[in-house]
Task: structure prediction
Amino acid sequence: MRLDRRWLLSLSAWLPLSGVVHAQTPAQVAGSPPKFPPPVPDIPTSHIEATALAARNAATVRRQNALVNQGKIDESVQAFAPDTRNHGVAVGRAGLTRVLTDILGTFPDYHSEEFDLMAAGDEVVMRQINTGTHLGVSKIPFNGGLLVGVPPTGKKFKVQSIHWYTLKDDLIVEHRASRDDIGMMQQLGLLPMTPRYDLPKV
Result:
C-alpha cells in the first residue's frame, strides 16, 4: 500500500507536536500494514498561522466564547460586527443576543470547551465540546428547532460542535456551525438511542 505524501503532510499539520505520528511502511514493520486512518489523540490543540492577524482573530473568538461561558451575553456579542451574519442570514447583534439568551435560558449551566482551534487569515475554526443541563423551555428554533416548547427533562448532555468564523477589522462578520443536535436530543431522552456504529475493519 503506497501512502500519499500530501496526505501525510496535511495530517502532520493537524497533529500536536507532542503527538506526531511517524508513518512507517510495511517494510519497516514486517507483517504489519499501515492502518488507515491513523489514531489522532483527542486532546486540545491549536494551530494558529504565524501572523498578527491570525493571532488577533483567534483571541477574539476565544474571548467571545469565554464571555458566553460566563453568562455575559451583552459583552460577548460585541465581538460581532453590527451587521454580522449567522448561517448566511443577516441577524446583527440583536439576533445573536436572542439566540444566546435562549440557549442560556434552556441550559443555565451551558459551557463550551475549546478542543481544537485553527486560525489563518480572516478565518477561525473551533471544535468545541458543549455541555449543559436541560432546565428551561426553549422559545426559538435553534438546535434544529427540536427543543421549542419542550418541558425541561433535567438531564445533561455532552456533544461536539464545530464553528467557523470569518472576521474583518477584528470583528466576527460571519458564523456557521455544525452541531450534534441528534446526539443532544438522545442524551436528553427526547429521541431513542441508536446502537453504536463502528466502521468495518479493513
